[in-house]
Structures are given as C-alpha cells and as structure tokens.
Design goal:
2 copies of one chain form a homodimer. By secondary structure, the first copy, chain A, is α+β, with helices and mostly antiparallel strands. The first copy, chain A, has 2 domains: 133 residues, Sandwich (Jelly Rolls), CATH 2.60.120; 88 residues, Winged helix-like DNA-binding domain superfamily/Winged helix DNA-binding domain (Arc Repressor Mutant, subunit A, Orthogonal Bundle). The first copy, chain A, contains 8 helices and 12 strands. In chain A, the strands form 3 sheets. A 4-stranded antiparallel beta sheet of chain A has the order 1-8-3-6. At the A-B interface, strand 5, helix 4 and helix 6 of A face strand 5, helix 4 and helix 6 of B. The first copy, chain A, binds a DNA duplex through helix 7.
DNA sequence: CGCGTTTTTGAAGCCCCTCAAGTGTAGTGG
DNA sequence: CCACTACACTTGAGGGGCTTCAAAAACGCG
C-alpha cells in the first residue's frame, strides 16, 4: 500500500543509496503536511525561493505565462517529486509552480535543508542526481517540441509520465492516474487542446492507449513506444527498480 | 583584452563571489589546453562521463540524433562554459556534446574536481548556481519551442546568445561573433534552415538585426526584444555585471 | 437537476515544411 | 590565376499539419 510519504521516500532512496537514518532525518525536518487546493501557485515568478517543496499527493507543474496570455508548462510534478532544493542560490524564480489538482505537500525550511545536506553527503549526492535527471527530462521535452509531430509528442509524454509513475510505485497493470485535462496537455506540448483531442482519438481508435476519467491506460506499449521513439535511459533509473 | 582562460575565469567568478585563490586552484588543476577540430564529439550518448570540460574558445552544443536522422540541439556552449561538473553521478550520457567550430578546451579530471569542490564550498555553490542557470535556459527554450512562432523564436535565441556573450565580455558595440550556420540554427530552433533563412531576411530587411560572416549585429535591440518577448531575468546575472 | 467545465467534431486558413534549383563564397590544387 | 569542389545561403512553388473559430455533446459536482 502506498501511504502519503511513501512515494517521496521511495524516490529519494532510489536516487542515492541512502541509509534509512538519512531519509528519516529529512522527513523529520519537514513541516506538517498541508492540503493545497487545485489551481493555486506554490511559488510565483519573481519570488525569492525560500523552502523545499515535496509533493506527497496530487499533481503540479512549472509554468510561465506569456504576455499574450498563452501558458507554457515546462515540467510536471507528481507524487514524490521535490523541487528547488538549492534554488536559494538564485535571487528570484524565473517561472511559477502551480497545482493542477488538490495536493498534499510538505515543505522543509531552507535552513534545515542546508544543514542536512552539509551533514550528510549522501543526501547531497541524491539531490544532485535528482537535479541532473530533471535536466534530462527538460532536454527530452526540447527534443519532442523540436522534432516530433503531435502524435509522437503525445505518445512520448504519456510514456514519460507512465514511467515516472511506475518508478514511485503508482501504476497497476498498464494504467495509472493521470489527472490532466486536454488543455493542460496542450499547454505542455505546445499544441492546442483541440489538436490534442484529435490525437488522443487517433490513439484510442488504433487501440494503443486510452486517456479518460483521469486515468491513463496503455493497451499496446510496444506500439506506443515505437510511435514516440521512446527510450527511458534519460530517466536514469538504474537502481531500486520497481516492477 | 580577452585571453583564452579569461572568459572562464570571468564567468566562474561572476557566479560565486569566489576568492582569487579558489579560481586559481581550479585553473591549476586543469589539464593543458587542447585544440579540437570542428564537428567532433567531446562525449557521446551512452558514454560514462569522466571529466569536466571547459570551453576556452569556440562553440559546441549538446545534441541528440533521432532515428530518422534529424538532429535536435538542446544547448549551445560558448567560451567560458563548462559542462557536466557532477554528471559522474549518472551512469551514462543521455545525449552527445559536439564541437561546432574548432575549439580550445581544457579538461579537469573528475577526481580533482570532486576534491576541489569538497575543499571549497564557494566553488560548490558556484557550480550549483551555474547548473540552475543552465536549467533556466532549457526552460526558456521549451517556452520558445512551444509558444513562439519562427520569427519570435529566432529573435529570442539571438538575444539569449548575445546576452551570454556579453556576460563573458565577448561583445563590442551591439555585435558579437556567432559562428552558427542556418542549418545549425534550424536544428536548435526546431525549424528548417530554409525557414530560418526567410526569417533572417525579414529581420534584416526591417533593419532589426543582421547575421552574416559569422557575426551577429543587432541594429535595433528594442524592436528585437519586443518581437522576442525577451526578459533576461532567467539568466540570473545579478553580480559582476559586464557593461 | 442545473450549471460550469471538459471533451468532441467540423470547416476554413495559415504557418512552416518539402522539394527543387540557383547563387554566392572559401578553400584546393593545377 | 583560374578551374574545381564543397558548403552555405537564397528564392520559389506547392502541400500538409496544426490553428482558429464555432458550436454541440458529455461529464462532474453542488
């Protein structure tokens, strides 16, 4: 069974071969979990980052709104993800982070994070590793936006999200929760929601995957991977694999 | 005057309020500079990263080649840039890095980097900061690819590269060296070189900027910034500003 | 049940791609 | 000094993928 803190513990342990004590101290340093409604900003562009966020339940995203009102989502944050571990090095956020669904999150005061990181090198390495993987995901998005058409792009994103959910034990069979509207997907993929809809219909009619009722079901993962040209090596999941 | 190592020293100092001694020790740990021809890989997808690269002269890029032969460039590396400081945490590269022009580079053995980083916290912070800024650049690219048309995209990239060149003191007046072919620009922007050409003509005819003879000249930086919707806050250049 | 949100579908148009050909331009060797 | 080659740049014509605009259907939640 997956309890609230589980996804985070599972993820951070997979990243760094950490001793149980290291993780426990991090968990103990965190503030009590808080519920946040959907469509709220956890932090806004221009703010000075001051805490470490960990998402225990729900989905959030990094995004930026352009002058013309268009929104571009640059990353999805799912249960177990944490963000801005060392963003305190920078003066202000160059983007915002907002919830997409109701979320359960914990924050860790920056001072405590820094103390912990200094005292436990294994934790430093785990955070570094997570940071590098996040960067790999950003690069994969650039490849998608630059060189894949809408069908391939949707397929690739679905596989990324499915793989990440699997890595924190949140998939069953070939399906997982995926509470993203077609508007949100469009904002992430650089497409309109109208076209996302048409692509999803195509994938559904071909019996490859279904997205509905806030749930992703992959029916033919081979075909989906072939469409996307998906190779999960960029998620660097070599240790602590979850079946 | 800009000597080979200058751009790097200038950049690393701007990042971390470092003592001169810290920088000197890093420079002293580096191997002798090496010349690399154009169109050579410094490191390939699948390789285990083993050294820290610093580019003293010339341009390189992070890229990935898709199964259909298309190339997507995900980042440009210019004089002063370093890469993969802590990528040793990961098992293998998920992309390649190749030179675009002849380059002068130095490498620092990973062991020495790690020893230096451990002994000088200021250096750790400087590398963190550089890493976070690189991430911001990746996010800005995603915004461009997702929500800007070809004209805006070209304008934004030109301003990014100009700003970064300015930050290491490699601009004069409103121009700088920019030895990128239109094919390379297309590979970076997710466009064809044909369309890049048309966009550059448009910008030239409107008297906004000129790109030719491996040189970028910005004639109307206000107009260019307006087209691009450019805001350089994501480059986080708050200290050590170069005029 | 009623209302807002999300999904779905159609029609028309534009931005950028594809394909193709022609024009520089730099370097090389005779 | 001039062929010759390779590469980069330039321009045109036609086509397709995705957008825009619009409206209806389905869903979810009080």
């Amino acid at each position: 069974m997956v309890t609230p803190a589980n996804a985070f513990v599972r993820k951070i342990k997979a990243y760094g071969l950490l001793a149980d004590g290291d993780v426990r101290r991090l968990v103990e340093a965190s503030d009590p979990p808080r519920k946040i409604a959907a469509h709220r900003d956890l932090i806004r562009e221009g703010d000075k980052p001051s805490v470490l966020f960990v998402i225990l339940e729900g989905w959030a995203c990094r995004y930026k709104v352009l002058p013309d009102g268009n929104r571009q989502i640059m990353a999805f944050l799912m249960p177990g993800d944490f963000c801005d571990v060392h963003a305190g090095e920078l003066e202000e956020m160059d983007h915002s982070i907002g919830t997409l669904t109701p979320c359960l999150i914990v924050t860790v005061p920056r001072r405590d994070v820094e103390a912990l990181v200094i005292s436990t090198p294994a934790l430093t390495r785990a955070f570094w590793r997570a940071q590098l993987i996040d960067e790999g995901v950003l690069r994969a998005w650039i490849v998608s936006m630059g060189r894949r058409n809408a069908l391939e792009r949707v397929a690739h994103l679905m596989l990324e999200l499915y793989a990440r959910m699997r890595n924190v034990g949140l998939t069953t069979d070939h399906s997982c929760e995926l509470p993203l509207t077609q508007v949100v997907l469009g904002d992430a993929l650089g497409l309109t929601s109208v076209h996302v809809n048409r692509v999803l219909r195509e994938l559904r009619q071909q019996g490859i995957m279904e997205l509905g009722a806030r749930t992703l079901r992959i029916l033919d993962i081979i075909a989906l991977g072939k469409i996307a040209g998906f190779d999960d090596n960029y998620l660097h999941r070599k240790i602590g694999k979850v079946a």
